[in-house]
Amino acid sequence: MSFASARPLRPDRAPDRRARLYRFGALFGAGFRRWSTYRQAALAGLFTNIVFGVMIYSLLRALADDGRRPGGYDTTQLATYVWVGQGILSVVHVWSWNELADRVRSGDVTADLLRPIDPFEAFLAADLGRAAYAVLARMVVPVLAGGLMFTLYIPHRLYTVPLFAISLTLGTVLSFTLRYLVNLGAFWLLDARGLTAVWLLASGVFAGTFFPLRFLPEWGQAILWFATPFPGLFQIPLDVLVERPGPAQQIGSVVLQLVWVAILIPLVWRVQRAATDRLVIQGG
Amino acid sequence: MAEPGGGQAYARLVRAQIRSQTQYRLSFAIDVASCALGTLVEAAVVLVVFRVSPTVGGFGLREVLVMSALAAFAFDLADLLVGNIERLSTYVRKGTLDTILIRPLRVLPQLLATDFALRRVGRVAQSSVLLVAVLIYADIDWTPARALMLALTPLAGCALFAAVFLLGACVAFWFVESGEIANAFTYGGKEFARYPATIYPGLLRRVFGYGVGLALVGYQPALFLTGHADPLGGPNWLAWTSPAAAALAWTIALLVWRTGIRHYRSTGS
């Protein structure tokens, strides 16, 4: 087909690293600004986060009655898990994202492929910008609200908070990479609704947003941690923050996130190449 | 055509939706399957919760399963029938509500028919099977009053959730970017109704449980069915008030809806 150049031009072949970084930064800023215009929505979301926070914490607190430690967490750790969890939900954004799939269905994706930047990189930059805005608009307030109502866990290890920041960033990258993969499915199915539904279910349950994964039997936990990237989205950043595992495991789990990122990003590029190779642009 | 052809027109809208949604067959099949799986997962969450604790808020597994299954079935049914009203905020934001307003059909049924989500049928089917299984497992001592309660509760619960969906959607008439506020009461309401009211702090319990009436969806009927006295001291006839609560909620929701429609001004874009 004469439109063979619709294959994304791989930016890593571009010699100028600085230009690439600058481009990434500009898209990041655009993502940040785009979301910061929806102030009413952010406010509405905060209300919902706080209501859910009270409900989920009530349930977990009830499980810790009589001095029990469900999943090995004490009540302050559970409180932090829930409240910071409500805060990072919209940072990591485990919910649906259909932008690419919609562009595949409408055919607009061709414009993305003709740009001199890899579409994955462009969408990732914008998503990280969105996440940065969510840290300010969606994470701080639920944590403060939780802190006012309940006793939160304060980390003891000096490096815990910076490690949490790294882990949260990796979680966001992982989440986006997986959402992007789901959207690439639209190249084959033309409609990503089914795949999105699977993603919503899997990310909700296996990432630890329904309940801390440490409530599961040991074998179930082992499968989730080492055979799937899902704990890296939500559970690992939170466990790092509440210092649930020992120092070695705490750092090890962030390394595990890094390994998943290193596996999934090349996978995205391969799937994307396969997808664009079979793309048929409807003439009109 | 509005008077004689009205019903037919809605049916046609629903049929058009079904056709469009089943167009991408594989995608649709995956969608239905994962929807149905979601119900099972939610039931499994209750089992996980009881893995780490023998009781929850003073209740055992049987009672909590009954609450959860009643709440899930009522919610899924309401979600199938009116859940797509959530999209109202998109219509208001984009100004596409105008096209619906100028048609010679009633606005609310039109909106419900236009976005009818067929995949939710799979969810309702699953949750009804689950409800039956849970009721068998709970080994309830059946009496005529309890059987009547079982017949009444899911319908009243469905009506109550439906009213909450409608009220939540109406927020969009006043606050355009308000999507998630409704979620606190719809999905949040379901979450609330699935567990004993005893676990919640006072304010939340009063607002959600007895203000919105969600304690009448799972908690109170489950107490009545299992013969468990209310640790909060509520009388055991309270579960019978659910139809009245649902009727009241619908009256309020329809009033707000009507006010909202009158208040609506197109975004003009």
From TrEMBL, chain A:
Q: One Pfam family name from the record?
A: ABC2_membrane_6
* Annotated PANTHER family: INTEGRAL MEMBRANE PROTEIN, SLR1174 PROTEIN-RELATED
Keywords noted in UniProt: Membrane, Transmembrane, Transmembrane helix
Naturally occurring in which organism (per UniProt): Embleya scabrispora
Q: Where do transmembrane segments lie in this chain? A: 41-60, 131-154, 161-182, 194-216, 248-269
Query: What top-level branch of life does the organism fall under?
Result: Bacteria
- State what protein this is by name: ABC transporter permease
Automatic annotation (TrEMBL), chain B:
Keywords of the record: Membrane, Transmembrane, Transmembrane helix
Pfam families linked: ABC2_membrane_6 (PF06182)
The name this protein carries in UniProt is ABC transporter permease
InterPro entries listed in its UniProt record: ABC-2_transporter-like
- The membrane-spanning stretches of this chain are 28-52, 64-85, 121-138, 150-176, 207-225, 237-257
UniProt organism field: Embleya scabrispora
